[in-house]
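Methods — Computational structure assignment.
A single polypeptide chain was analysed. Its primary sequence is given first, followed by the predicted tertiary structure written as structure tokens.
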Amino acid sequence: MADDSGATKRVDEASPVEMRDPALRTEVRRATIWLGLACLIALAIVLVQPLLLIFAAVVFASLLDGGVRLLGRVLPISRGWRLLIVVVLVLVFMIGTFVLTGVQVTEQVTQLRSTLELQANRFTGYLASQGLMPGVSDVSGIAKQALGSVGRVTSWVGTAIGALTSLFMILVLGLFIAMDPGTYARGVQWMVPTDLRDEFARTMVTMGETMRRLLAGRLLGMAVEGVATGIALAIGGVPMAMLLGIIAGILAFIPNIGAIVTGVLMVAVGFSAGVDTGYWAIGTYFVVQTIDGYVIVPMVAKRTVDLPPALTLGAQILASALFGILGLALADPMTAMLKTALERRSDREDEKAAG
């Protein structure tokens, strides 16, 4: 505004774009926070595959760290040397197993595929003859349509190259984390507000202990179930007993669903060699699963992490639907970490209330 002499007067009132109103500032701040959360959720959805790979690497690093800590009880040497010993032992075990059983397992894999296809065709043919399901040709069309509708979130694990590349990245990243976990832990703490870092550090320590106990229990269960299944099937004359034992041991890492898949494979292969062999496979499955479910799992859960079966199965269903095979394999560690964080928060609230 100018006066009669043409000089411009000073304007003291707020401009239309200036926020001096405290209420307006509060609302803008809230809107910014919600917008940031929305962007963060969208970014997590887009980057779900790399995030799963990083979490899988953390799980592998926890496994190596558990071996390093266990070895430290008997070998008073530096952490780097103990980690080297653990890695060498793992490599020797994997290479030795592949060299000793590689040819036989390779042959059995091809035989297993043919056997499963034959048994599946027989089963679907029987159901179709009883009018319980569509014909074989219709079943094939339905299966192709179902497989073709899998979302892009899980399609990246469908190729062998993608799976091998992902596995290599998990192993390398996990090894780097296991070499110096303190550095990465401090880096994560720097992203937390200063007044919350002490509690966050204690929560991370508790989560690390939970992860190591969970993986130790899983490894014990895998070893017991794989060896027991292989020996029992070999005694009963079930074909491909060694391969079925290896599959049972690997799938034991995924409770509930892994046991179901193992049982289906065992029964299908058993009945391919005869009725008596099929009944032996059924008996072996129930005996091994009964011992594992009522003896081994409770003992391991008491010393490691006790996850309710319904919670575990529900988490596996959700993780497999959202993230595919890798999500299914990582459902238990994710559930255990979330359970630990919630328990730690509850304990902190109780401490505040008591204080």
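Note: The mean pLDDT is 77.
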